[in-house]
## 1
Amino acid sequence: MPVIDRSRDDYRYWYPVQIRWGDMDALGHVNNARYFTFSESARLAYRDDNFPRDVLPDSQDLILARTSCDFVEQLKYPDHLDAGCRIAKLGRSSLVFEVGMFRRDSGSLVAVTEAVTVWFDYAAQMVTPIPDVLRQVLLAYEPELGR
């Protein structure tokens, strides 16, 4: 397994996650599928807090194309996580989100997810370029994307 080199400093946007008893599986640790749910929640919170919905077309939004997770440490109830979210890549019609999950008490990295999303026109049922207004907002919020 490759060494994952992520720190809290790599993320600007944070989403808190409380591990619930029901997140665990028969082996006594958080089920692997739950990491994707935590990642999705962080991505959607990032979107809700940073996308200028009032000026974006009503019929357009993100759609998930691919997701993956690198697991670093096990989680157990009642762990608390801080999920750092950033856009790792901004393409013509795609946004690649990365979510780093860290234990709140120790700060140790437990997982990193990547989600390739595309800007999608749900009325036309087709991929479309990311609107310039959204691109400008994202580049202002995450200036390293423009480098």
## 2
Amino acid sequence: MKRNLKAAATSLIASGVLLMALPGAASATELQPHLGTAQEAEGYGGQCGSGYTVIDSLRLESGAEIYLTYSASGYNCVVTVAEYPGSARSMDAWIQRSNDESSRDSDSGNYTAYAGPVYVYAKGSCVDWGGSYAYGKYYKYRSHCD
């Protein structure tokens, strides 16, 4: 058994994956936004249009993912995408420049696949963004600054 664990740990370290429990670290059940990678952005279907790259995402326990994207033109876009499209459910996507309610763009309603896209020009600014799905918890995150 020890040999199998040691082999597994060696394999994980060699592949660049190392999981550690640190005091005060977020538990696996807490939802934390993270920088998107190509693999994590598989659920994003290009709803924001060409030239937008996923820079962050947030998985909702209720069955959707919120994607924050950015374009070199200075615009950010948010879309909330259902994991299993089909029947219409309450969905929401929103974005605004931080501390600038007048810049807010949002889309909410009953949708079968996604809410949004919503856009804000935010070159040189921080953005607040979030969404909801199927009456799940509402999330926002403020950490993206150009």
